[in-house]
């Protein structure tokens, strides 16, 4: 391409921008890889010990460097439930063969789901399910049991005993509490050794707690000034080099201008100039010959400069795409082979999160456009809400939440956009599911008065602080001050408000006895004869 020939301003700009982008990306990826590595080695799980799978199958258990796994231990049982190896003596007393069936099997697809009853007949008791994850990602129950608050089995076919001890209940919860009240995670790996004998490998490791993660994260964050300093240095050096290159490129033009100002005109050698400046040279020479039209030529030059900037911005998209592709290809080779799938999954999750963010930002800006219009349909709100809540029931149930509704049969018709209006309610629901705990109750009600239809959405979770509540519908405001996650784009509530406003309605925080977070939506009512 002619733009990238020698003495091209665009070529110079792209080269410097590419180098700058690669360096910044390298600093960022380097820091993130170090960050991920430090987190990975700080917390041990079954994946780490299974790096020694060959030694386990060969029963060379002494080759496993268990001392390098902080506070971890393991024990191995044979097909007769006898202990054939333990990393230390105390673990023999901690894990009993009779309880192996209660320990979750690693990568089996089966797991226990435990939900505590907040009220009712089994208040403070537990609903225990054994679930299997099938191919489409959904969970299928294979058995259940209801335990009272004393861990007695009152219903279900999951356990062949009348009650569970606290020790047994901890095991189905995937944890083990030692005599010093330290919490550990316990899991088992079933395999067949090289002699065809069945074995059960039980691994005990310290439970990964949010507090531990936060402490390590705080330590790592102390090093953030280092990459920031590197980026500042890179920016400074790149700026200096780019400035020097540009000045050198236009030096012939500068000399020519000075020569004209001194009354000693000097011919400009175009071969020494970037090709993008050829038109400037021609313009300059014309200006010297036609002073009467200098003002018009000046305006033309300014317009042309603006065009170059626009064209440059457009052309930079292609090299940026190439940089991203190459950066990903390079990143695929900096991790061990056994970690590649994990890293690829993480990249996929981040890519999906980025795509979701862009979709949210696009939706927000699109709806802010003054010419944006809804595609309204007349619906029976009673029927519509019944279908909507039914469609969300599984998602709500899997979170361990409950739903109550108060939607009369004789609600009048309303006009809504069948694509956008559910999104507003989804944003409210997702907020509740994201920031509240198991057992939270969600409440929907619909009522009508005069020319208004009022929709109430509420939950009895942790609530929203007064400070956040005053700004809840502003763009880029999250509810992390009231709820501890701190995740999200900060556009959910703003989008919900914009959708309701596009429907000619209003949304605001309200209050309702028994609930911590209450949103009131009001829409125009359609009267029928």
TrEMBL record:
Domain of life assignment: Bacteria
GO molecular function: ATP binding; phosphorelay sensor kinase activity
A GO CC term assigned to this protein in UniProt: plasma membrane
UniProt keyword Cell division, yes or no: no
Any Pfam family matching the protein: HATPase_c
Mode of membrane association: Multi-pass membrane protein
Predominant place of localization: membrane
Keyword Ligase: no
E.C. no: 2.7.13.3
Reactions listed under catalytic activity: ATP + protein L-histidine = ADP + protein N-phospho-L-histidine
Protein's recorded name: histidine kinase
The organism of origin for this protein: Kandleria vitulina
């Amino acid at each position: 391409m002619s733009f990238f020939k020698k003495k091209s301003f665009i070529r110079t700009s792209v080269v410097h921008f590419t180098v700058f982008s690669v360096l910044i990306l390298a600093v960022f990826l380097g820091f993130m890889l170090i960050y991920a590595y430090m987190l990975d080695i700080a917390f041990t799980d079954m994946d780490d010990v299974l790096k020694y799978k060959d030694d386990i199958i060969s029963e060379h258990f002494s080759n496993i460097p268990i001392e390098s796994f902080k506070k971890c231990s393991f024990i191995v049982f044979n097909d007769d439930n006898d202990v054939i190896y333990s990393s230390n003596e105390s673990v023999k007393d901690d894990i009993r063969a009779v309880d192996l069936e209660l320990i979750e099997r690693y990568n089996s697809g089966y797991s226990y789901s435990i939900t505590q009853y907040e009220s009712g007949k089994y208040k403070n008791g537990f609903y225990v399910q054994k679930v299997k994850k099938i191919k489409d990602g959904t969970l299928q129950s294979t058995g259940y049991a209801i335990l009272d608050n004393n861990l007695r089995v009152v219903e279900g076919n999951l356990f062949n005993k009348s009650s569970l001890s606290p020790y047994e209940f901890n095991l189905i919860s995937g944890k083990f509490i030692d005599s010093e009240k330290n919490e550990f995670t316990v899991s088992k790996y079933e395999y067949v050794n090289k002699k065809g004998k069945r074995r059960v490998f039980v691994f005990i490791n310290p439970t990964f707690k949010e507090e531990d993660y936060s402490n390590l994260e705080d330590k790592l964050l102390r090093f953030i000034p280092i990459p920031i300093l590197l980026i500042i240095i890179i920016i400074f050096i790149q700026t200096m080099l780019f400035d020097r290159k540009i000045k050198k490129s236009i030096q012939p033009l500068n000399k020519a201008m000075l020569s004209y100002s001194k009354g000693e005109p000097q011919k400009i050698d175009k071969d020494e100039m970037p090709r993008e400046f050829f038109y400037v040279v021609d313009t300059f020479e014309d200006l010297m010959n036609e002073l009467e039209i200098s003002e018009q030529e000046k305006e033309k030059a300014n317009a042309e400069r603006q065009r170059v900037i626009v064209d440059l911005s457009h052309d930079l998209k292609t090299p940026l795409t190439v940089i991203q592709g190459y950066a990903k290809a390079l990143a695929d080779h900096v991790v061990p082979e056994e970690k590649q799938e994990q890293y690829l999954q993480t990249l996929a999750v981040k890519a999906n999160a980025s795509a979701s963010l862009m979709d949210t930002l696009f939706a927000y800006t699109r709806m802010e456009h003054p010419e944006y219009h809804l595609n309204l349909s007349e619906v029976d709100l009673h029927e519509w809400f019944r279908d909507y809540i039914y469609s969300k029931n599984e998602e709500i149930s899997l979170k361990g939440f409950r739903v109550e509704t108060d939607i009369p049969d004789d609600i009048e018709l309303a006009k809504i956009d069948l694509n956008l209006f559910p999104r507003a309610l989804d944003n409210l629901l997702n907020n509740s599911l994201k920031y509240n705990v198991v057992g939270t109750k969600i409440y929907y009600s619909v009522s009508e008065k005069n020319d208004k239809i009022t929709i109430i959405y509420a939950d009895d979770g942790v609530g929203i602080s007064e400070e956040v509540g005053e700004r809840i519908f502003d763009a880029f405001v999250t509810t992390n001050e009231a709820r501890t996650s701190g995740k999200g784009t900060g556009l959910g509530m703003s989008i919900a408000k914009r959708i309701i406003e596009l429907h000619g309605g209003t949304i605001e925080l309200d209050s309702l006895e028994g609930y911590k977070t209450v949103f009131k939506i009001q829409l125009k009512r359609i009267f029928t004869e």
